[in-house]
Amino acid sequence: MGKEDVLDRIREAVKGVVPEQVEITNIEFEGPLLVIYTKQMDRFAENSDIVRNLAQTLRKRIAIRPDPSILMDDKKAEKEIKEIIPKEAGLTDIFFDSDTGEATIEATAPGLAIGKYGAILNEIKKKIGWAVKVVRAPPIPSKTVADIRKYMRGKDIAKERKAILRKIGKRIHREIGENENWVRITTLGGFREVGRSASLLTTRNSKVLIDCGVNVGNENFPYINVPEIMPFDTIDAVVVTHAHLDHCGFVPLLYKYGYNGPVYCTLPTRDLMSLLQLDYLKVAASDGKKTAYESSYIRETVKHCIPLRYGDTTDISPDVRLTLHNAGHILGSSIAHFHIGEGLHNVAFTGDTKYEQTWLFNPAMNRFPRIETLVMESTYGGYQDFQPSRIEASERLKDIVQRTLSKKGRVIIPVFAVGRSQEVMMVLEKLMRFGEIPEVPVYLDGMIWEATAIHTAYPEYLNTYLRNMIFQKNENPFLSDIFKRVETSKMRGDILSDTDPCIVLATAGMLNGGPVMEYIKAWVSEPENTLIFVGYQAEGTFGRRLQNGMEEMQFSEKGKTITVNVKMNMETVDGFSGHSDRRQLLNYVYKMEPRPERILLGHGDNIKCIDLASTLHKKYGFETRAPLNLETIRLR
Questions:
Q1: pLDDT, position 610
Q2: pLDDT value at 1 more than 60
Q3: Is residue 2 pLDDT above 70, yes or no?
Q4: Which end of the chain is more exposed for a tag (fewer CB within 10 A), N or C?
Q5: pTM here?
Q6: Kind of pairing, strands 411-414 and 530-533?
Q7: All structural domains of the chain
Q8: What pLDDT does 4 receive?
Q9: Among the ranges 23-37, 165-179, 274-288, 615-629, which has the highest mean pLDDT value?
Q10: Dmax over Cα atoms in the chain, in whole Å?
Q11: Secondary structure of 15-58 in the HEC alphabet?
Q12: What are phi and psi of 495, to 5 degrees?
């Protein structure tokens, strides 16, 4: 059955559900959605049973959208909104999504923008024709979010995007045969190693790539040139579990070499992924390195992104449905659950997970309708990998910082811009607020401020306590006066020459470049200073060598190689990791509902993958395996 045959059948079914007086102007597949256009949006709003009955009847994700003919030009609509919204509402932004026919109004006082009993909102809807929602403005403006919205709003991009979505929809709903079905996983990167994560999920009808990362330490990329995956235009979908470069760094490369399909991820992942990919190119250029792709392919990735919310089940190919769940690792990080065929097989890829309530996120999800195979990370899966709790980590950080500041020293904390830095910021703010450590400036250098701004743009992805603190109590730890953004190289130079005690949070987290190196070069020979590692230092990185006790370091300055003695204190504070430790990994599987039949281990050093696989088999009786890269495993 072809796409038009399917649509004809759907149109007949819609007639049987929608009342005759409701005019349907068009029905189209747009990406994974079945979109129904109407000039009478209010009729659907008044009767929510219509949409529910349609979804149950058609077994599709349904979107009801206003017919384009009733939408006011967005420039005129923006002008009308500004005239209607009262000034005291604190209007900060308006953005239009032509994909959905929805206008979003950001305001510091959203209740005043909505009006009593929704009067102002209803007036706007009648005037401009767009569906309208009002949200609270994020307390820190994000340039990345603003730039992406502006880019997607462009007339040419919006038109191209519509064509892309319809092409994707046609591919998802293509005709397939009824021969023998099977399911396989091919390991393309990140197995028995940390970095360059990539897996290919293959059925008789579909090919789905889960993650496509880069090993930042040595620039290794996944085995994406093997026959199983080539050519790239045969891939149905790419799913990105989260925004760290070892999971998404090479996604733009796919578009450079012929991929033209969708990327499924959460909205925060889309924005953070763009931020980190652009920074990856910037750092490479500053180091004089040739990059594998150009920034235009990052824009191409954004253009093809189909954002999903946690819990939404979506067709991504003729026989594969995807649901993303909270992974607890970083903002927007996801466990990707795939339902294949009509109950043929269910497999979940954890990506990177944290099975513990953290200062930012709720614990990783481990309850699914069905699951037969689990592909799980094992970064800290070794038999000695037990981490302190978040409370213990906070206490240890407090002691080290207190000791350093009492000696009039300075503290450097190398951090990943996304996740780790925000957690450390929250702990430092709390310690200073309650007088447990001296109040000194906390300088944020690198992308930390921008990454933090993106966190405030998506409060629904933070844990319940933090959301309430920010939006109900109006207490935002990220806005504390202790935090100082390092905006220029001159400001950095002033900090480097200042002898007063301070704390610096700077990227990159593994010391493989970035502004953190400037602070280390300037302060590493002074014994009163302290470098605190709060994140994983991969084998082969400068951070790992320094952590292991390197006594001298060399760096170039004005064409000369300079050698300095390492006298700075080196401290490691475990417990801030966004990865589950061994105990949490075992509990994650033990408490999983339902119980998987098979577990594949990856994203860990060789011995840790093997050790965790062995323990899970011996302790719980699971069929386990720690595959190497380039293995293909038949699941069904």
A1: 97
A2: no
A3: no
A4: N
A5: 0.91
A6: parallel
A7: 3-69 (3.30.300.230), 74-155 (3.30.300.20), 181-384+579-634 (3.60.15.10), 403-572 (3.40.50.10890)
A8: 65
A9: 615-629
A10: 82
A11: HHHCCCCCCEEEEEEECCEEEEEECCHHHHHHCHHHHHHHHHHH
A12: -65, -40
For residue 547, the model assigns a pLDDT of 92
Does 45 have pLDDT greater than 70?
no
Please name the residue that has the structure tokens 């578009």.
Answer: 255
Q: Are 237 and 350 in contact (CB under 8 A)?
A: no
Q: CA 515, CA 214: separation in Å to the nearest integer? A: 21
Ramachandran assignment for 258, one of left (phi > 0), alpha (psi -120 to 50 degrees), beta (any other):
left
Q: Is the dihedral of CA 166, 169, 175, 176 positive or negative?
A: positive
pLDDT at 560 over 90: no
Give the Å distances, CA to CA, from 577 to 381, 509, 539: 13, 12, 17
Buried b (16+ CB within 10 A) or exposed e, 344-360: bbbbbbbbbbbbbebbb
Taken in order 193, 631, 233, 309, the sign of the CA dihedral is negative
pLDDT in tens, 100-134: 888 999 998 899 999 998 999 989 988 998 989 99
The interaxial angle of helices 516-523 and 489-497, nearest 10 deg, is 20
User: What does the alpha-carbon distance between residue 633 and residue 129 come to, in Å, rounded to a whole number?
Assistant: 52
Indicate whether 179 pLDDT > 70: yes
Q: In 58-197, at which residue ranges do the beta strands (DSSP E only) sit?
A: 62-66, 91-97, 102-107, 131-136, 183-189
Total Cβ atoms within 10 A of residue 591: 11
Q: What is the pLDDT of residues 239-278, one digit of tens each?
A: 999 999 999 999 999 999 999 999 999 999 999 999 999 9
3-state SS assignment for residue 536: coil
Amino acid at 258: G
456-470 mean pLDDT? 87
**CA proximity to 202, closest of 232, 188, 226, 182:** 182
Rounded to whole angstroms, how far apart are CA atoms 625 and 80? Answer: 60
